[in-house]
Amino acid sequence: MIKIVLLYAFLTLSVQANDIDKLLQSMNIEQKCGQMTQVTFDVIEKTPRPTDPDENPVNMTKLEYAIKTKNVVIYGLDSIHGGNYIRESVLFPQPISMAGSFNLEIAKKVGEITSLETRATGIPWNFNPVLDVGRQPLWPRIFETYGEDPYLAGKMGENYIHGSQGNDLKNRTKLATCLKHYIGYSLPFNGRDRTPALIPENLLREVFLPPFEKGVLAGSPTVMVNSGEVNGMPGHANYHYLTE
Asked: Which CATH class is domain 75-243?
């Protein structure tokens, strides 16, 4: 995963990709972990947080330490239905509502606009699209999916990726996408987020895998791993799903 993320970073910074292995060999474990750590805003904000909306909430000393000392510089956001972390950005219906339109051009256009506005803030990486298939109505994040049909979810995700990335990740109006959450994240047994799932292999292959295959073939450079567990094995430790 660190190699994939560094590859993405090289693409956006116009550096030669064949330098990745050389860079990795020069990095220690702490540096590699630092590049993979997505710190939340509260780590660098002033304490207590200013109540005045016009006052800068960032503690510049903490920010300098995070960037210059700890090297946490590869960063992304979850712009799921537009740049929802950006003031005055265009907000769109949630993905499940967009899927209800069966309009692939809408998915592509949303990708284009979301990328333009998110990239303008200096963020070049989006933790989207969500390619989990929505088959568990109790799951509280089902609105982030493109619904219950794997074919439709794959096609909507594919077009979103094309709109978001275009043909050149170095383009300053485009974002690198990240497929999530590989795999089986959206079918927790009890419906609660990040709780265990019990999914037969044939169901994983027929329903949950195809949208991710579409996303990879569409050119998405990164994938977010399921932070729960499937069939008794944590997603990040699942050699079968991640490697085989």
From this structure: alpha beta
